[in-house]
Structures are given as C-alpha cells and as structure tokens.
Write a structure and sequence with these properties.
By secondary structure, this protein is of the alpha/beta class. The chain folds into 4 domains: about 150 residues, DNA polymerase, domain 1 (Orthogonal Bundle), CATH 1.10.150; about 90 residues, 2-Layer Sandwich (Beta Polymerase, domain 2); about 80 residues, DNA polymerase, thumb domain (Beta Polymerase, domain 3, 2-Layer Sandwich), CATH 3.30.210.10; about 250 residues, TIM Barrel, CATH 3.20.20. It has 24 helices and 17 strands. It has a 7-stranded parallel β-sheet. A 5-stranded mixed β-sheet has the order 2-4-7-6-5, sandwiched between helices. Helix 8 crosses helix 9, helix 17 crosses helix 18 and helix 20 packs parallel to helix 21. The longest helix has 22 residues. The radius of gyration is 26 Å and the shape is globular. The protein binds one DNA strand of 29 nucleotides through helix 2, helix 4, helix 7, helix 9 and helix 14.
Length: about 575
DNA sequence: GCCGTTTTCGGCCCGACTGTTTTCAGTCG
C-alpha cells in the first residue's frame, strides 16, 4: 500500500506551490487530496486499478491523472519540473513558525535566502530589518524560532502532550473564574501526535483566566497574549495555547477549536445549506441574524440536524455521512474491556512481580489478565527460557487459587526471528494459554522479507495474536515495511487476532488500519503492553485510537466476558488439533 | 486544484493576534 507515499508527494507539491506564491486555492486542493489519500482505507493502487480515483472527494481529473502516472512509472513529471524551479532549501523555511510562504518568497527575492543556513546568516548580519515589511521585531522573533527549531520536534507524541495538558487543566481548573476546561484540537480527538497543546476554558471573565495562565510556575515565556487567546512556552520547551470563552459560547467554541478543520468546514457547509452561519461565537440565522442556542456541542450538531459526533471521529472520514444516515458506530468504551492481554512482569523486562500486576488489573475491574513476558529470543529483555517459563506457570497457578474468581493466564510475547522461525518448540507453545507474536528486531528488512516473516507468524497455527504489527514508534521510528493489507487478509482468514497496542509511543495498529481491520472482519485486541502496574492505565490510549478507527466493542476480543474469552481460546486449540490430525 | 438539486464559471471558512503600517498583510489554527 503506497497511500502514505502518494499523500507525501502531493504535500510536497503543495509546499512548493505555496512558496512559489501560487493560488492558495490550488495549494489547498493538493493538500486536501493528500489528506484524502492518507485517510484512504484501501490501497490506492487498488483504487487506481479499478478506475475509482475520481470518486474520492477532492480528487478530480488532474490529480487522478497524476496519481496514475506516479503509480505506473514511479515518477511524476509535473513534480520534477516544480522541484527544479524552487531551491530545495527554500521549502524548508516554512518549518519556521511564523514564517510563511509570503515571507519566504520575500526573503528569497530581497536577500537571496535559499536555505535555513542563509536565513541564519541574514539574521546574524541584521539584514532582515532592512527589508520593507519586516522589522527588528520580526528579525528577533525569527532568530528565537530558528534556535528552537531543532530542540522541538515538529509534532508531539500524544503520550507527551496528554499528561502535560492534564496537568495544566488541573492547575487552572482550580481557579474560581474557570467553569470548565477541556483540551481542543487533535489532543481532544486523541490523534497519535499533536501539533500543539491547545486548551479551552469557559469563564465569565476570560481575561482573568489569561492572567492566571501566564502566572503559572512553568511559564518560561509569553509568546502572545490577548483578551481571549494566550500562548506560552513552558520551561520544558513545550508550547501551550489557551483560549478563554464565555459560557454561552462554550459549545460553538469547543466545537470550533476541536476541529478537525476538514470536519468543521463540512459542518459549516451543512449549516449554510440550512440558511445558518456557524462560527466560534454561535449559530446564526442568515436572514434575521438571530442567534440560536450554542452553549453545548449538542446544540451545534442539532442545529444542522445531526446527532452529536464524538471528537475521535471528527476527521471527515465519512462520519458526517454516517450521522446523516443515522449509522454512527457505537464506539468502544474503556469500560467495555474485561481484561488485558499483553503485560510484562519482572520475569522479563517488567518492573513488578506477577501478583502486583494481577492486583492492579483486578483493581481496574477486569475479570482476567494474560501475562505475556518476552520469549528467550529477546535477550535484551531477559526473555524466558523454557525452564523459567514453566516455573512462572507454577506461580500463575498459585495466583489463580488466591485471586479467584479473577483469572490470571499465562501467555508469551514471542519473537519472530529474522528467518521467520519462532523461539520455542510447538510442544512448549501448546502449554500456554495464549501465544502472541511480535517483531522487535530486523525491522528494516526489505518489504518482501519482512512481510513474509509477518505472514508466517500470523499463519502459524499456534499464534493467537499478532502484536504491534508495524513496530512503529510515534514520531520517532517509522514501522517496518510490512504489507498490512496482506497481513490483515490472512488474519481474517486464519482467525488470528491483531493488536492495537495502547502504549502511547506505539498505538499500533493505528486508527486507519484498525478501521480497515474491522472492514476485513479481523478480530482485534486492545492492550496496554504494561511493564508496571501503573502502565496498565495506558490501555486508554489504545481504546481512544480504536475509537478513531470506528471500532466497536464487538470487534474486540477482550471485551468478552471470561467464559466467552476462554471459549475462544479453546476453539483455537480445537482447530489446531483438527488441523494437525488431518495433516497426520 | 475541485466542485455544482438555481451554477461548467466563479466561488472556495474566518477570526485573533502580531508587526509594520497610516489602514493592513501575514500567519495560524
């Protein structure tokens, strides 16, 4: 599947056109096409082969032809022409916050700036302030941003942003002028990474909230401050935005700043069709100017004839059509989970003994916990030898007596070796309640080899769950070049479950692939991959990622009560017996 | 660039904040 690659291509085109000063609308068209392609749930090669490109919203004749050309030849003449017209370093200037296409162009024309290094030199020589339209303040601000550029990554992983946001919300929530405080933007939609930390507070006195915000102890620098919007830089280098809104605007404002932009634009279109105007300050009738109620998000959706749509779905990936048709999914909730199927103890690389993990799981209200320490092959994680595996079984047997009716099961997180083989003999695997399989090493194999390895693992008759299928780390490491479409199709056929790993660094499968899995009829599991009792909590990130993928409780194995979960395991075992009997 | 239940041409979201201006352009979300 080359969706991400093709999306990237059109993003690049949009960047270049932007620096060239092309029509903003054309730039937006390319970005919209890129967004649609990135969110596509089928391989774009398949769509193209079936002649369905132009059916994708935002893709017309011209872009469809470009996609065809690129997929067919591996090149796009238009793109290559564009790249010759613009110095490669010029596009990089857009990374600098506060430096947009117009300024990039201006710097190029007036000062010959063609790269970040050129910009640095121009600033050092104080040449920016001589350019008409720029001044000393701009020069100083860009100098600061340049310095900050390498220290701050482009996007923040959700696992970093969410705890920071929750800390700030807790501190500001105590202020008497704050009635309500929520994250906005991709943070509220639980995207796996966020561009910035965006908060929204309801208050009868927004200015007082702004004043309290800039006075918080972690504020290193106030980057911008107005009566309703303030941006600060924390001592840890993270930026936080806060908007203050009056309670009567809460619903429309929260909706506006939750986005996504694509979702909001669609909603405004719907409002226009109904003779309404929708913005952050309310819902207005176009004819009379009368303002309709907008204190809650339900008001906003009701005004355009829709039920409330959960933030996790607001990506314009069909949720508006589903809402119009009355077919919104019944998204899974954390309370639906009856157990965790992927946790580590101090028998491998966890920090707590099995009993503490079991107690923590029980305290979360689970009925069962599957302990899945690493297999021998992952030496760095103190993987279990066969002897230690059997010794651990005795410990787990004892816990079951102690903790009944809570159930502790013994599983394994098995390495797939570079050649596709597993770590233990089949006879040992049969002793385990659940076998889950992972790729941790040799992730950079070429697509054919790594896919073959993954397929072998999924197809192995003793595999129950395929863990974090790509091995990606959010904003840090791109996953292996596994052909996930092929993996999911095989998983659907063999009944092997596929994991949504809730560790916020992983979130693997991601939202788009989780949704694809449900479409293909693949059974999912949502797990914490905890290495400590507190780590069990991170399963909520997995649940939210699943919600972003339209996943319902019925799609997820570990929403089943213990008896049904056990029945599934038994059925897997029975199938294995039948298969090996028929082979023999 | 895309799109169309009044349109195949003429629209395409819009407001806050900043800095450089003498009334507004650029950037961002």
């Amino acid at each position: 599947m080359r969706n991400a690659e093709v999306a990237r291509l059109f993003e690049d085109i949009a960047d270049i056109l932007e620096v060239q000063g092309d029509s903003g609308f054309r730039v937006r068209a390319y970005r919209e096409a890129a967004r649609q392609i990135a969110g596509l749930r089928e391989p774009i090669e398949q769509v193209a082969a079936a002649g369905g490109l132009e059916a994708i919203p935002g893709i017309g004749k011209a872009i469809a032809a470009k996609i065809d050309e690129y997929l067919r030849t591996g090149h796009l003449a238009y793109y290559e022409r564009l790249r010759e017209q613009v110095p490669p370093g010029l596009v990089a200037l857009l990374q600098v916050p506060g430096l947009g296409p117009r300024t990039a162009q201006l710097l190029h024309q007036e000062l010959g700036v063609e790269s970040l290094d050129d910009l640095r030199a121009a600033i050092a020589a104080h040449r920016l302030r001589s350019v008409r339209g720029l001044g000393a303040k701009t020069e100083e601000r860009l100098a600061r941003e340049l310095e900050r550029l390498h220290e701050s990554a482009r996007r923040l992983p959700l696992g970093v942003a969410r705890p920071v946001a929750e800390q700030v919300m807790a501190m500001l929530g105590e202020h008497p002028a704050v009635l309500q405080i929520e994250p906005g933007g991709s943070l509220r939609r639980w995207r796996d990474s966020v561009g910035d930390i965006d908060l929204l507070a309801a208050s009868p006195d927004p200015e007082a909230v702004m004043a309290a915000f800039v006075a918080l102890p972690f504020v290193r620098e106030v980057l911008s401050q107005g009566p309703t919007f303030t941006r600060v830089l924390r001592t840890d280098g993270l930026g936080v935005d806060l908007r203050g809104v009056r309670p009567e605007f809460w619903g429309t404002a929260l909706h506006h700043f939750t986005g996504s932009r694509a979702h909001s634009i669609r909603l405004r279109d719907l409002a226009n069709e109904r003779g309404l105007k929708l913005n952050e300050y309310g819902i207005f009738r176009m004819d009379t100017g009368e303002r309709l109620p907008g204190a809650t998000e339900e008001d906003v959706y009701a005004a355009v004839g829709l039920p409330w749509i959960p933030p996790e779905l607001r990506e314009d990936r069909g949720e508006i059509e589903a809402a119009l048709a009355g077919h919104l999914p019944h998204l899974i909730e954390q309370d639906d989970l009856r157990g965790d199927l992927h946790v580590h103890t101090n028998w491998s690389d966890g920090n707590a003994p099995p009993e503490r993990m079991a107690e923590a799981a029980r305290a979360l209200g689970y009925e069962y916990l599957v302990i899945t320490d690493h297999s021998a092959g992952l030496g760095v994680a103190n993987g279990l030898s066969v002897e230690r595996l059997r010794a651990q079984r005795q410990v787990i047997d004892r816990l079951n007596q102690e903790y009944a009716p809570f159930h502790v099961l013994q599983g394994i997180e098995m390495e797939i070796r570079a050649d596709g083989a597993l770590d233990y003999p089949d006879a040992v695997l049969r002793e385990l309640d659940l076998v889950s399989i992972s790729l941790h090493s040799n992730l950079r194999q070429d697509p054919e080899r790594v896919t073959a390895r993954a397929l072998a693992a999924v197809e192995h008759p003793l595999t129950d769950v395929f863990n974090h299928p790509t091995g990606r780390l959010v904003e840090k490491r791109r996953g292996a070049d596994v052909d996930l479409e092929a993996v999911l199709q095989v998983a659907a056929r063999t009944g092997t479950a596929v994991e949504i790993n809730g560790t916020p660094e992983r979130l693997d499968l991601d939202d788009v692939w989780a949704r694809r899995a449900t479409e293909l009829g693949v059974l999912l599991v949502i797990t914490s991959d905890a290495h400590s009792p507190e780590g069990l909590q991170s399963i909520r990130y997995g649940v939210m990622q699943a919600r972003r993928g339209w996943v319902e409780a019925r799609h997820v194995l570990n929403t089943r009560p213990y008896a049904a979960f056990r029945a599934w395991l038994n059925e897997r075992a029975a199938q294995r017996e039948r298969r090996s009997a028929s082979r023999a």
